[in-house]
Design brief:
Blueprint lengths: L2 E7 L4 E7 L4 E4 L8 H34 L14 H8 L2 H31 L4 H29 L1 H25 L3 H16 L3 H9 L6 H26 L5 H22 L11
Antiparallel strand pairs: 1-2, 2-3
Length: 285
């Protein structure tokens, strides 16, 4: 895994943003330790390579045999097992699955792009303090949770696909608005923060419905379908993180541009696959 380091100077303190390709962002605030950028980078590299990945690898090595030898099979004995590469390939070739899995994961991965790019955009470009950025980031997290909560109340009345389609179009439209604001360079912090808040809010209506709709026809292989769904999500997130890092030019354009491309591509893929997939989903087994 690649790790990217950046030192962001604020009025009174320094912040180190450490980003992984998965989109996870960590902050450390310690003025005395951050006066030397080279020292800071070396400190984080040492911490990661000496403690980070060995700890994760060790946990995986411990948990794998525990799960293999102690976790009992929950599938009824007479039911055939649906596992293996053949099933993965079948799912990746099934338009009923891809019709929802690809758009939902493209849009969801745009949140990882936001997580990766937001510290640079709001702390470095808009000169927010780490505390102010924390409040801004927290507000968007509340927006995501609020969208998901409202969706839970609406889905029983409107249906998951109705909400999925309209929220996806709304997210793409907000992505275009974000890119337009970033490209114009006008509006300042609020000009970008308000459509970003609405963008994250709209994602709350998208992901859960896309997940449910993608798995609906595959009740006999729900575990594998779910695992593949998550794998695709983090693959897109990793590619989005690479893209926003490579395109970063000291403006919000890289973050908003990648978010916009992911959302618009999700809508286009859904429209394309909708014309070639069954219009009505079969009842789950």
């Amino acid at each position: 895994m690649n790790v990217k380091f950046a030192v962001v100077e604020t009025d009174a303190r320094s912040a180190v943003s450490v980003e992984s390709l998965s989109g996870t962002t960590f902050f450390a605030h310690e003025p005395e330790l951050m006066s030397d950028e080279k020292y800071t980078k070396g400190l984080w590299r040492c911490a990661y390579w000496s403690c980070g990945w060995p700890l994760l690898a060790g946990c995986a090595l411990v948990l794998l045999p525990l799960v293999f030898f102690t976790l009992r099979e929950s599938m009824p004995a007479g039911r055939p097992h649906a596992l293996g590469p053949k099933l993965w390939i079948a799912l990746l070739g099934d338009r009923r699955y891809l019709r929802f899995a690809l758009p939902a994961n493209l849009i969801q991965s745009s949140l990882f792009v936001y997580i990766a790019g937001a510290p640079f955009v709001f702390i470095k470009i808009f000169a927010l303090t780490p505390q102010q950025f924390g409040w801004s980031f927290g507000a968007n997290a509340v927006a995501l949770m609020a969208g998901g909560r409202i969706n839970a109340h609406l889905v029983t009345r409107l249906g998951p696909e109705y909400i999925f389609r309209r929220s996806m179009v709304a997210t793409a439209a907000l992505g275009l608005l974000l890119l337009a604001v970033a490209a114009s360079g006008r509006g300042g912090f609020l000009g970008l923060a308000i459509p970003l808040f609405l963008y994250v809010f709209s994602v709350g209506f998208n992901f859960a419905n896309g997940f449910a709709l993608a798995l609906a026809p595959f009740g006999s292989a729900a575990g594998t379908a779910s695992a593949l769904f998550g794998t695709v999500q983090f693959l897109f997130a990793a590619l989005g993180g690479v893209a926003v890092s490579a395109l970063y030019d000291g403006t919000p354009r890289a973050m908003t541009g990648v978010m916009c491309v992911l959302a618009v591509t999700g809508v286009a893929l859904y429209r394309y696959l909708e014309q070639r997939a069954p219009q009505t989903l079969p009842a789950p087994p």
